[in-house]
Predict the structure of ABC transporter.
Amino acid sequence: MSVSFEALGRSFSSKAGTHTVLRDVSFNIQAGEIVALLGPSGCGKSTLLRAVAGLDAPSTGTVSIDGTAVSGIDSRCAVAFQEPRLLPWKSIASNVAIGVPSGADSARRRHVVENLLKLVGLSTFAGHRPREISGGMAQRASLARALARNPGVLLLDEPFGALDALTRITMQDLLLDVHAAEPTTVLLVTHDVDEALQLADRIILLGSDGTDTPGCTIVRTVNVPGPRPRDRASSELAGLRSSLLASLGVDGH
């Protein structure tokens, strides 16, 4: 499914006044595309993702999926967060089954869960409780639960941010395998420039545009070259990495 943002803005009011987080954000995501949102903390990346899911409403502008405006929690989306958020008293299979749409019969539910556990490499851990598996395995289960909805749009809010470096790379590779098997549209929030370069077709950089107008907006869009999986040692990606870090105000050397 495609996703469109049209002049989206989000402000929050308090006794201290109005705080504008996002303003005039407009871009499109094509069906099956992976788009990464990069930017400093507080620039509105997660706010933008929540607007797609219908978990938060924009103050101005619109967000639509396949041409239909998002209004309230949208069943066309599934979200995976940085924390797996598995129910500790349920098995891994039962946690994944939570994501299966409620109208599915027991045979269909079992079939979906078995296929997804196989896809993410957790078939032999189906009966385990969350406390009995590693953090990386728990994140795989969280991803499987999100995919159980068969979402048109998969929303990932720093899903690998709490993992160690080696597990993070493994999970990035797994996401690419899953996307190859189930090419849904993906919107990924990340602070990791290397992760964005490995996974995304495009990178949207959010930040201040240097004007006096409050709120963050799109300051740069990068089309990432080359098919996935990409060579992590690529000189072309290394150049893009340095350029993106410079845009974020970080010395890439």
User: Anything to note?
Assistant: Residues 77-150 form one domain. The longest helix spans residues 165-181. The chain has two domains: 1-68+152-161+184-239, 77-150.
